[in-house]
Specification:
Protein name: Zinc-dependent alcohol dehydrogenase family protein
Shape: globular
Family: Belongs to the zinc-containing alcohol dehydrogenase family.
Helix content: 25-40%
Radius of gyration: 19 Å
Number of strands: 15
Cofactor: Zn(2+)
Keywords: Metal-binding, Oxidoreductase, Zinc
Distance between the termini: 12 Å
CATH class of the largest domain: Alpha Beta
CATH superfamily of the largest domain: Medium-chain alcohol dehydrogenases, catalytic domain
InterPro entries: ADH-like_C (IPR013149), ADH-like_N (IPR013154), ADH_Zn_CS (IPR002328), ER (IPR020843), GroES-like_sf (IPR011032), NAD(P)-bd_dom_sf (IPR036291), Zn_alcohol_dh (IPR050129)
Strand content: 15-25%
């Protein structure tokens, strides 16, 4: 099969032929229909993720068609179109039994602990536990986003912060996760303010219905949010994984506010100095989140199929496999609005 492999940190991916994957016991092989290029892939590309051992095929945000099944697979057959969370849970450990598949003791993470979906085919472990039927009406490039950015945002808002209609939601970062959080937050009835330092991204957020935007390069984001919301946001989401925005996300909350850390703190940001005085005096709730358990897919898909949220503006670039390296390198600087999805694996 044709694949793009990470063979050296910060170097262009090596595109060529590699052996087709075979289905593991309890797993399947998918023909990849689409795969997003995510900031987490950039972390792997830069060498910031200790789980990645070279060579590795990146790509964790995918959808596909089942082309082979392994022994023990009961729910899926050849020809099924499916999506999967990027954390493939075992379904057997204590965390999985409690419904916390994202904390699975035996998790498999494509693109990080095993080869991912920057390829024509991918092997997917624990298929019966993780796969969900892809709605026929959903385009593949939109479905790919349900593997990471959209689902991570959904888990943050519904599973962690328990966002309520009418609340103010402050989103720090106008990239793929931030825009997903904006779209889902509005669908849940919240009022949303988006913070970034790139005016183009803020203009994009305005077109998608943001109630307010703040350019943190020109204004004090905390003060601006407190003014817009009348005292502070009820919920804040940090979608970049850096100290300055994490601190601002905490300080932008009103008393008893809830913050969810979606952005992955890596490299120099893996350890941060946080305003614990704000946590204490504001009686804040600070939570981390990573991915989404597969059992939450039905509620999210129902929201989408019911016409309550339109995710089509999220995907702004449909690219070929040969362009993946350029998209990874683009994360070294403020990337353009929206997300890139690989839909052409032949060129």
């Amino acid at each position: 099969m044709r694949a793009a492999r990470l063979t050296a940190w910060r170097e262009p991916l090596e595109i060529g032929q590699v052996a087709d994957p075979t289905p593991p016991e309890g797993g399947v092989v998918l023909r990849v229909l689409a795969c997003g290029v995510c900031r987490s892939d950039w972390h792997a590309w830069t060498g910031s993720d200790p789980d990645v051992v070279l060579p590795m095929i990146p790509g964790h945000e995918f959808c596909g068609e089942v082309v082979a099944t392994g022994a023990g697979v009961a729910r899926w057959k050849t020809g099924d179109r499916v999506i999967a969370p990027f954390i493939l849970a075992c379904g057997r450990c204590g965390y999985c039994a409690e419904g916390h598949q994202t904390a699975c003791d035996n998790q498999v993470v494509p693109g990080f602990t095993c080869d991912g979906a920057f390829a024509e085919y991918i092997a997917v472990a624990h298929a019966d536990t993780n796969l969900t039927q892809l709605p026929e009406t959903m385009p593949a490039e939109i479905a790919a986003a349900l593997g990471c950015r959209v689902t991570t945002s959904w888990q943050a808002l519904v599973g962690r912060a328990q966002l309520k209609p009418g609340e103010w939601l402050a989103v720090f970062g106008g990239g793929g996760v931030g825009i997903s959080t904006l779209l889902l937050g509005r669908a849940l009835g919240a009022r949303v303010v988006v913070v970034d330092v790139v005016e183009e991204k803020l203009a994009f957020a305005r077109t998608l219905g943001a109630d307010a935007v703040v350019n943190a390069a020109d204004a004090n984001a905390v003060e601006a949010i407190r003014e817009v919301t009348g005292g502070g946001a009820d919920v804040s989401v940090e979608a970049l994984g850096i100290e300055v925005t994490t601190v601002a996300a905490m300080r932008s909350l009103r008393k008893l506010g809830r913050m969810v850390q979606i952005g992955m703190p890596a490299g120099e940001h893996s350890a941060m100095t946080l305003p614990m005085d704000a946590l204490y005096s504001g009686q804040l709730t600070l939570q981390g989140t990573r991915g989404m358990p597969s059992w939450r897919y039905p509620s999210l898909i129902s929201l989408i199929e019911g016409g309550h949220v339109d995710l089509s503006p999220l995907v702004t670039r449909r690219i070929a496999l040969s362009q993946a390296s350029d998209e990874l390198a683009a994360f070294d600087r403020p990337a353009p609005p929206g997300v890139a999805v690989i839909t052409d694996f032949a060129s």
